[in-house]
Amino acid sequence: MYQIRTDLALETQEKMQEDHVELKGVRFLEQKIDKNLTISTVVIETENGAKAMGKPKGTYITIEALDMDEEDEDYHREISVQLAEVIKKLVPLKKEDVSVLVVGLGNREVTPDALGPRVADNLFITRHIIKEYGKYAFGEEKVNRISSIVPGVMAQTGMETQEIIRGVIKETKPDLIVAVDALAARSTKRLNRTIQVTDTGINPGSGVGNHRHGLNEKTLGVPVISIGIPTVVDAATIVNDTMYNLVTALTQSEAFSAIGSSLDKLEDAEKYELIRELLSPNLNTMFVTPKDIDESVKRLSFTISEGLNIAFGNGIMQGSHA
Amino acid sequence: MYQIRTDLALETQEKMQEDHVELKGVRFLEQKIDKNLTISTVVIETENGAKAMGKPKGTYITIEALDMDEEDEDYHREISVQLAEVIKKLVPLKKEDVSVLVVGLGNREVTPDALGPRVADNLFITRHIIKEYGKYAFGEEKVNRISSIVPGVMAQTGMETQEIIRGVIKETKPDLIVAVDALAARSTKRLNRTIQVTDTGINPGSGVGNHRHGLNEKTLGVPVISIGIPTVVDAATIVNDTMYNLVTALTQSEAFSAIGSSLDKLEDAEKYELIRELLSPNLNTMFVTPKDIDESVKRLSFTISEGLNIAFGNGIMQGSHA
Amino acid sequence: MYQIRTDLALETQEKMQEDHVELKGVRFLEQKIDKNLTISTVVIETENGAKAMGKPKGTYITIEALDMDEEDEDYHREISVQLAEVIKKLVPLKKEDVSVLVVGLGNREVTPDALGPRVADNLFITRHIIKEYGKYAFGEEKVNRISSIVPGVMAQTGMETQEIIRGVIKETKPDLIVAVDALAARSTKRLNRTIQVTDTGINPGSGVGNHRHGLNEKTLGVPVISIGIPTVVDAATIVNDTMYNLVTALTQSEAFSAIGSSLDKLEDAEKYELIRELLSPNLNTMFVTPKDIDESVKRLSFTISEGLNIAFGNGIMQGSHA
Amino acid sequence: MYQIRTDLALETQEKMQEDHVELKGVRFLEQKIDKNLTISTVVIETENGAKAMGKPKGTYITIEALDMDEEDEDYHREISVQLAEVIKKLVPLKKEDVSVLVVGLGNREVTPDALGPRVADNLFITRHIIKEYGKYAFGEEKVNRISSIVPGVMAQTGMETQEIIRGVIKETKPDLIVAVDALAARSTKRLNRTIQVTDTGINPGSGVGNHRHGLNEKTLGVPVISIGIPTVVDAATIVNDTMYNLVTALTQSEAFSAIGSSLDKLEDAEKYELIRELLSPNLNTMFVTPKDIDESVKRLSFTISEGLNIAFGNGIMQGSHA
Predict the structure, then answer these.
(1) Does the interface predicted TM-score (ipTM) exceed 0.90?
(2) Which of A307, A311, C305, D116 lies 20 to 30 angstroms, CA to CA, from C14?
(3) Which residues in chain A have Cβ-Cβ distances shorter than 8 Å to D149?
(4) Is D166 within 8 Å of chain A by CB?
(5) What is the residue range of A29's domain?
(6) How large is the C-alpha radius of gyration of chain D?
(7) Is D141 within a domain?
(8) What are the tens digits of pLDDT across the range C139-156?
(9) How many domains does chain A have?
(10) Around Cβ B218, how many Cβ atoms within 10 Å?
């Protein structure tokens, strides 16, 4: 079957529907908060569902906010509050004081891949203060210990991210990992307007920087929540996808009925082959990104870090396991 | 006729050839320096030629270097030397000591548009030293006075670039303007591998940042050389273009002869309409750019500034008017 | 007499008091807003006063806010509001719609000198929108036209800042210039906690980057308000000053009465000579700056730009000429 | 005894000499390479020597290059070559293929503390390539595996640098750590002109960022070479030191013989107390740094990374254990 590249479970699910593929073992729920804000939940429940979706079993929650990329401090706060709620829903911990390691994935030097490092820059870090002065340093009874690391990418470090994080976990023993990463979407209209939160961690092949190894409970021994915003569409995906639409349109168009009937006889695989031949090999190292991506990543990293600050800081955490 | 967006005269000329349009009033010359390096010259000689090309009369010289985007200091120097030769060919001045104002166009905060500002950062600036200490400060008889400015973009300044440059020219009276800008190409394979040098200045609608007003001899009263490197392809262009290729291929393909004969009857305008319908409106604010654009712009700005340093600095200038 | 380097009229005035110099032609007023915030006004009324102070005639208003350098968004807003009030007090214009050019002085690449460029980055720029769509674009009857420029420093541009600004003024004809610059103070305790606003413009020798030429009504033909925050103390000043204190203390100390009586006989000039001999010549290119200056400049530039946005934007301006 | 703050063993040794302290257990060697370049070696051989010097036992090699801070690519290469020689002298390994983890210490956001992170940015990283393709990927028989990490500072990560590095060592098992850090000197004339290389690692209290825990063979279980360039002088140190010189000068000066004889009777402790009283408490969070520190750190990080590339890369390593 013709494959598209997307890190959003929501888009994979949509594609399945477009293609009239019946999905077993996958639940889908959409909740319209207001005219700007929609929260969708995809739950992959079975191994068959996972295989069909090309993504591991688990829960994928997507916050879509049409105005998220605009400059409006109050709205950002609103999204941060929603994000905090979603995180708390997925956090599988029942302890009083939680130790959380936030991992800012991606490459600080490549703008659309810099989301993770920039989120780490803005976090309210507490672990060292609590370790030094005790939790009463914050005048609260229950305080979560937040630490963070920006591991860099393999070309810079010579190490797999997994190796670095596994080492840091051995030494600092967090209860939970939160991995933040920039994602690739299928549709440009989702760029910088969508936050995906999952309890499945980071998986091979995902992210703008394309991780080779997973960061998940199986590989790290600790639960991993991952948070991502799509900041790019692979150039090959955008061309592939629009051309696929073209071929499909031709088969349905009345104006082009003659062509339609010919193309109709083509299998999906043949259509895909036809498209492939015309695609420049250069496109593999290219991505599509909005003109104002530098400014957007700066702003969105703040929305996410605030969401994490609200979710884990300020004792709000306890609310979730009352 | 179906229009593509490109700031490279070379690509417009290629497109004309593809479409079998006979170009009058346009001369073309290609010179293969070695297996890596090709220098092409497009001269638009008549108003008819200008109209057909959608670009003003003048000379457009393109340096294409396959390895230009790779890390190799020596090769970069080689390109800088070639660039200096090309600049000196186009510089219309015969005076002994030339006063040159280099204008670094574009937006420092948007990576693929930051080429101009970064070139300005690396220049060898001499005007203030010569003004203070005389030209013998450099122990040379002939020294060019180099100054530079990064005017910023209109959303940052509230002023047209033209207004700022015209003001600075009035006060500092340079003999020549060199405007450096990031360009949009039609083909991804030209990104970060091509330098275009022209004697026509900067024209409305060109550049990654899309200038609204021209910077040329007519508007500024001083000759303007412009130097650009394509760093993006408009997302609409890449999809348009690949889809156009698809439709064309279908009309020619034996395998799809039935479709071919149907599409063959379509006019270009109809093909274009067909494509337009399928294009997402979001694509208008998107561009396609290589994954390592941050690193590339850093390196390429150095290649250009060295070219300018060689062309105008170090008394090499005199060679050109011997 | 022993000279200290400071760009703050307030510190010059304090030094005069310490030295028991009677100041004629200089008025001083201190207003304690609350326990964190003090506003001081130095008015140099006569040429004699100007000579004694080493600063031109005019009004120098200083906002001192103890918490200004701390992270607290609300407090910042409070200072921005105060700053807007001070600016409106000094703005000598009575027209309905004012055209203001904000000049961000300093060097973007040298952290403690980057205040001006960063303030320019955060401004709400309106001139181009009003020029294109008319003032009703903002749904207001009275809208000020705000433009801004970051001219860079002479080593980067080869031009005096004065030349660039004079050119831009000729082309765009603003009613008022606001020049923002990082300053040098005498005392480290004022760094990042003090805003000086004056109606005298920028004068030779001032600023972290040490301007060679003035930007004031006389040289530009337009009124110039200048706004500055001290971000450095010259290393020579800090050593000079502390050593001067030492020598003074020795002359007064009971414990060192023997030394005291000897030093007492020394003239100020002799004391200064003594100090000079011990000062390393290296200190001339050094400055003293807080460890977190990068973070401070980022934050403070926001406080100032918000002050300007409040003062000139949002129609608040009209209140001042009611 | 009066203490000065310096991370350079060379300066501690000089201070001892100035104060006529006889140093036992410390060897000193100075080697003048040419008029620009001096290499000094301080070897602390005994625990008594270590106590007197306030630094652990080991070898401290200092490369002083007067022109190091100037723009001259060739000269930089020369220093890089010298640095490579010094590193190879200190590297205690005899294996064929060495696995080296370079740690870029310091805070990327604080310019004079960004040396370590910037060195890491420029390294030639090989570990991941050798792990994937074998050492023949480089067409060499002996290739060292270079990896690197920028751990960040505790306020950003909530973790001790030691915890992070210990974790990464457990996972990736390097043979050698090279820790790169920005240092504090006593004298401004050494800033950006001096490289210290030691086999003692990083020790508590050292560095611009003031490390709380050591990174050395004892705490990490792996040999640690440390490389540093002084980029700041503590403001307190510079004032302390100049004032101490003043007091000393007064005791010796003929002109001030009366004062001299009085001060002569003071103990060092009393002199120190006298100085302390006059020092502003603000100075503790201030440092003295050159005006062009941003540019210097950018250049110097390149000199060090090239030194490391030469020392470990390109098979040059084998020469050292032939």
Answers:
(1) no
(2) C305
(3) 151-152, 157, 159, 164
(4) yes
(5) 9-93+178-237+284-311
(6) 21
(7) no
(8) 766 789 999 999 999 999
(9) 1
(10) 10
